[in-house]
């Protein structure tokens, strides 16, 4: 009896450890063409997908090559090398610690080789190592456990360095939901415009997918970040924590939303040898987008701020709510490509700004053919001794493309209106800033006390003219301004303001 028990046990072990993995290998061989075809559907026309499978008894190997559709004769292919450990206990993976508990259908280890993706001559730290390694455990219940890692490396010519990343993801069977986290090592990016450095950060998230749409919720810990501009200015961001939500509902008008909550963050601005510390206390960002056929039907954005401390000034609470409607994304993307082509050409036949202006004139009928609208539905910010409030609306009528052939008719296609309520100290500060530069240029060498006194005198003169003409209306401790732009004419508080009219009022011309 014991003999048969031992034989049965050994037979069961042989079946589980050797026979079943062989059967899994045959099943993989039959399913591989379908997997390859699914990959082709996922990448669409952007890549050509080629693949091959070498089935073994306990493990199999395969290679997938992604070749960009725009073949310029240079090898840019991305090569993925896969090692399949057949379940349920993936005997072939034991030597690398791959004993799965509970049992799995298969363990897939994928290596993204840097050859063909990045030139080895400009990458330091990747010699003989894959750019990314991914391990996928295909569980018998349909769940996937995924771990992706990239090593520390530096792309010298690209000005990019990374201390490595690690992402862990668990996907429920049928892609009904997912949960995971991403640990991003320190990053450094150098460009001709400056340098960005970000310390290690972590993102945690979980999501769900149903026929009604998808939803992702999570939180993040952002490490210290520092941006240094080529001009010498700098901006630092202290470690901070926040949350986010992302939702998408698939229907005839795709609807997506994003919500980001920021608890507290410290900002340090630097320039001209000075440091200006700032702190954000409580921030809220929400985006809601409806789109159809590469067109933004409506985008709504809300940003709320509890408090902002900047140097010796304190602002907040604040809120801005904006809406963007009927924007042709296809035309906008094409115009962006045209700008990049113009910049790369280097020979614009004139000054860069003039060349960009000519290009904008050529593209303007296509960009505004859907008659886009931009609206500031609500804006308010407490500071400067009071509350700044406003709202505004701009619409471009693109129904007649020929209207943009002439500057006069193009201006008539624009309709705008706005309302502002500004604290008196803010208006004084804005006028002082505008006049100070003019006075300093004309009174070079004068003592600073005399310059400031002259600025104060000119400011009072300008305010008197603005009040007399009705351009500014004072109500208590604030100024109210209502603006309209119709048929190419600017109207301020019911007063027609011709070309150069505001500048003349400010300077006394």
Structural class: alpha+beta
Shape: elongated
Give the number of DSSP strands.
30
How much beta, percentage-wise? over 45%
Average of per-residue pLDDT values: 77
What is Rg?
Answer: 31 Å
Low-pLDDT ranges = 5-16
Q: How would you sum up the major sheet? A: 30 strands, antiparallel
Helix content: 25-40%
Please tell me about this protein's structure.
This protein is 25% helix and 47% strand. By secondary structure, the protein is an alpha+beta fold. It has two domains: 166 residues; 193 residues, no CATH class. The protein has a 30-stranded antiparallel sheet that branches.
Write the layout of secondary structure elements.
Elements: H1 2-43, E1 47-54, E2 59-68, E3 78-86, E4 104-113, E5 123-124, E6 132-139, E7 144-150, E8 153-155, E9 160-162, E10 165-171, E11 177-184, E12 187-191, E13 194-198, E14 201-210, E15 213-222, E16 225-229, E17 234-237, E18 240-249, E19 254-271, E20 274-291, E21 295-310, E22 313-315, E23 318-328, H2 329-345, H3 352-367, E24 373-383, E25 386-396, H4 407-412, E26 414-423, H5 424-442, H6 448-469, E27 473-475, E28 478-486, E29 489-492, E30 495-497, H7 501-507
Antiparallel strand pairs: 1-2, 2-3, 3-4, 4-6, 5-8, 6-7, 7-10, 8-9, 9-12, 10-11, 11-14, 12-13, 13-16, 14-15, 15-18, 16-17, 17-19, 18-19, 19-20, 20-21, 21-22, 21-23, 23-24, 24-25, 25-26, 26-28, 27-28, 28-29, 29-30
Helix pairs in contact: 2-3, 5-6
């Amino acid at each position: 009896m014991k003999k048969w028990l031992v034989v049965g046990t050994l037979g069961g072990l042989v079946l589980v450890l050797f026979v079943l993995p062989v059967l899994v290998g045959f099943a993989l061989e039959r399913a591989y063409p379908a997997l390859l075809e699914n990959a082709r559907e996922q990448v669409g026309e952007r890549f050509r997908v080629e693949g091959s499978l070498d089935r073994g008894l306990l493990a199999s190997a395969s290679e997938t090559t992604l070749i960009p559709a725009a073949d310029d004769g240079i090898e840019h292919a991305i090569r993925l090398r896969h090692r399949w450990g057949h379940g349920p206990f993936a005997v072939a993976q034991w030597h690398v610690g791959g004993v799965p508990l509970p049992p799995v259908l298969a363990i897939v280890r994928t290596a993204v080789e840097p050859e063909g993706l990045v030139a080895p001559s400009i990458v330091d730290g990747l010699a003989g190592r894959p750019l990314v390694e991914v391990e996928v455990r295909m569980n018998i219940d349909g769940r996937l456990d995924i771990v992706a890692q990239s090593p520390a490396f530096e792309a010298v010519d690209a000005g990019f360095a990374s201390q490595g990343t690690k992402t862990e993801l668990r996907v429920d069977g049928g892609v009904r939901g997912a949960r995971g986290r991403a640990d991003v090592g320190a990053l450094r990016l150098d460009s001709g415009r400056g340098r960005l450095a970000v310390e290690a950060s972590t993102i945690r998230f979980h999501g769900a997918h149903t026929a009604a749409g998808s939803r992702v919720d999570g939180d993040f810990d952002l490490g210290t970040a520092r941006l240094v501009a080529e001009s010498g200015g700098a901006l630092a961001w202290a470690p901070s924590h926040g949350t986010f939500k992302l939702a998408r509902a698939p229907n005839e008008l795709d609807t997506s939303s994003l919500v980001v909550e920021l608890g507290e963050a410290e900002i340090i601005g630097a320039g001209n040898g000075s440091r200006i510390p700032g702190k954000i206390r409580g921030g809220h960002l929400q985006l809601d987008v409806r789109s159809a056929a590469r067109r933004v039907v409506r985008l709504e954005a809300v940003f709320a701020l509890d408090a902002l401390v900047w140097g010796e000034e304190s602002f907040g609470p604040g809120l801005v709510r904006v809406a963007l409607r009927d924007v042709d994304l296809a035309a906008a993307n094409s115009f962006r490509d045209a700008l990049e082509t113009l910049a790369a050409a280097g020979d614009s036949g004139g000054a860069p700004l003039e060349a960009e202006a000519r290009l904008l004139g050529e593209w303007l009928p296509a960009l505004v053919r859907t008659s886009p609208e931009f609206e500031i539905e609500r804006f308010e910010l407490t500071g400067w001794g009071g509350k700044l409030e406003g709202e505004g609306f701009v619409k471009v009528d693109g129904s007649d493309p020929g209207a943009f052939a002439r500057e006069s008719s193009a201006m008539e296609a624009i309709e705008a209106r706005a309302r502002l309520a500004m604290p008196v100290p803010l208006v004084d500060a804005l006028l002082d800033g505008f006049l100070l530069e003019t006075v300093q240029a004309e009174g070079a060498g004068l003592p600073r006390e005399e310059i400031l006194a002259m600025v104060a005198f000119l400011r009072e003169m300008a305010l008197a003219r603005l009040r007399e003409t009705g351009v500014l209306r004072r109500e208590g401790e604030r100024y109210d301004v209502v603006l309209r732009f119709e048929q190419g004419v600017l109207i301020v508080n019911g007063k027609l303001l011709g070309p150069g009219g505001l500048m003349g009022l400010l300077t006394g011309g």
